[in-house]
């Protein structure tokens, strides 16, 4: 008895390949693409510790800047991606790597939304405020503290000036991409008496919104609705621009 061999159509083969690529993206980068009539959204996670120029041990959950930076550049140019959702649960990490990623996100023209889940600590604060709209769940926390450095530090005036200039860059970026003033953010950064072994502040969901650091309280559904709203507005703007050019 001959068995009928079923052939796979090009559409089915393409769908299977897309599913395989999607699974691989989740494994490699903690990212995924969701497609719908409302728009195609790329979800990118920043988790664990932001890894800089030095490789962290395999036991440390990390986000590698050499993966994220070219990925963001590619997303900005990808016509099939309408918006980017950034999910944050990070303890912080390398200052220059984190600030570099934040600058890339802030410079994107595509709709972007961040959602702080669990924690957006240290250099995670600039990452959280970099998108066009920032959101936080009520239970999430954010640690704001002065610039710190591991390893050998030369106790010279130039070293402290360097720390101060880096700190100014962070304060300027955060205040420029959120509703908090430089003075208020610096006050939170240098606050004493709140942290047992450090200078700084720990703030939670609603407090972050009340301070103007984060735009609004919300969950995943709220973040997606906000992103789809930005995508719809971007489409209307493009249609109006095309109509005006005719």
What's the gist of this structure?
It is built from eight helices and nine strands. The chain has helices at 10-29, 65-77, 95-106, 124-129, 157-176, 182-189, 205-210, 220-245, and strands spanning 31-36, 39-51, 62-64, 83-93, 112-120, 133-136, 141-144, 201-204, 216-217. Strand 4 (83-93), helix 3 and strand 5 form a beta-alpha-beta unit.
Describe it.
The chain has helices at residues 10-29, 65-77, 95-106, 124-129, 157-176, 182-189, 205-210, 220-245; strands spanning 31-36, 39-51, 62-64, 83-93, 112-120, 133-136, 141-144, 201-204, 216-217. The longest helix is centred in the C-terminal third of the chain and has 26 residues, at 220-245. The protein has 246 residues and is of the alpha/beta class. It has eight helices and nine strands. The model has no long low-confidence stretch (mean pLDDT 86).
What features would you highlight for this structure?
246 residues; alpha/beta; seven-stranded mixed sheet; two-stranded antiparallel sheet; globular
Give the percentage of residues in beta strands.
15-25%
Please provide the count of β strands: 9
Shape: globular
Structural class: alpha/beta
The residue fraction in helices comes out at: 40-55%
- Average predicted confidence as pLDDT: 86
Low-confidence stretches: none
User: Helices and strands, in N-to-C order?
Assistant: HEEEHEHEHEEHHEHEH
Task: Count every helix, treating DSSP H or I runs of 4 or more residues as helices.
Answer: 8
Radius of gyration: 21 Å
Sheet with most strands: 7 strands, mixed
Distance, first to last CA = 65 Å
